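ingest -> validate -> predict -> emit
validate: passed (alphabet ok, no gaps, 318 aa)
predict: started
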Amino acid sequence: MSLGGHRDGMNGTFAAALWSRAYLLLTFTALFWAGNSIVGRAARDLVPPAALSFWRWSIALALLLPLAWPHLRRDWPRLRVRWPIVLLLGTLGIGSFNTLLYTGLQTTTALNSMLIQSAQPALILIVGALVMRDRTSPRQIAGVLVSLVGVLAIIARGDPAALLTLRLNAGDAIIGFAVLLWALYSVLLRGRPAVHPLSFLAASILVGIIVITPIYGAELWAGRRIVPVRESALAIAYVSVFPSFLAYLFFNRGVELIGSAATGQYLNVMPLMGAGLAMLFLGEALRPFHVAGLVLIVAGIVIAGKSAGEAQPSASST
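emit:
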């Protein structure tokens, strides 16, 4: 009996220690989200994008509600008062981003997707300056510009003429727009209601499902349906648990602990993980323009990161 209590205490201590370690939580977040792009690309012919997004979040909400319900009941008055920001964050972070990501992965590679997503730190700085009037230094601005050149190199596939003639891959453009919306979500997340993380996540997922439902209905109307095979079920199961419930909870906690800019800077490990996974599991080739773009993106992140502390003087204020 005492041994069981001791073990429970150890488990509780471990969970508390994990919950307080932002960079460990964000490492898992990056890994889970990298896997999300891999699965979205691999399942593109089996599960249509809106279907994957709809069932991902519906199952995630079903898994979450037993844990979140006591907190949700207590926090509901506060969530109801702050409904505009809850509606906006749920639309951006749950409803829009994931549906756009899976749509883009229909016509571009998981490797391209991961490398374009590596622009998040730069975009978070830009959006933070424009929307929240965060202070930015000349060094941060220079870093952002270098990173964006790297992203453009990837989108253009090493051919600058593609940008001049607007010969862009539709999937790349869609994912680029999704990443911009995610940067906005990351910055606005600091204004979320002061409620339990499970309450906020459940409310956000509910909003996201409402946003996705008419898109899923239109997809069904067009005759696009899930192929009923084992691989479809496995794809939906993965995206429902790891990049949904766990990763979003860890990401929101990371922003709470160290702020949106520092969180975005750290997540530059995600494209590195994703590129490796794409080559390992999907057989995608790493080409010279990928390497050049990634070098520029990481260089920009390093340049901007040198003065990130100056632009974010207090992580606790986020």
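The radius of gyration is 20 Å.
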